Amino acid sequence: MQRPDFDDIFMELAVNLSKRSHCIKAHVGAVLTKETRIISIGYNGPPAGTHNCDEEWPHTGCARDRKGSCSLAIHAEENAILYAAKNGATVEGTTLYVTLSPCLPCARIIFSMKIAKVIYLHSYAEYKGIDVDEGLAFLEKFGVQVQQYTGKFVQPYQPITT
Q1: Nearest 10 degrees: CA dihedral of 27, 33, 39, 45?
Q2: Among 35, 55, 56, 77, which one carries the catalytic annotation?
Q3: Does 77 participate in catalysis according to the annotation?
Q4: Which domains are present in the chain?
Q5: Which residues belong to any copy of the CMP/dCMP-type deaminase domain (predicted)?
């Protein structure tokens, strides 16, 4: 049996977490880790106790703010960081796995919380149709390691039956 790398395990978990999102626009998952341990998880969506956009507004999603972004959404990386902080976990020096590279406001939070590395699956710039990943550029400029995930998820062992 081939043993998966931790990068594969954590990114696969982020992908699976993204499936929990109630957002109409995008499903994003995040896993915050320290070495080989999970510190916190998150996915994008409205704050707990408000509305689930896909249930409340199944055709349009929540109202948009002046910039065209969801008015209720908390991004996946924000949710992971907030949950860790709420529960007293130290996030300094951690690695964040996220299915969509951080936007600029999330990058500022990541830097401020002293997260050491971000591994992302897809480009936020490509998703938004813009020419530069501002969040990644910010993180790189200020010394946070940034890496696009290029691994592959390992399929679970399947015994041979005769």
Answers
A1: -10
A2: 77
A3: yes
A4: 6-148 (3.40.140.10)
A5: 5-141
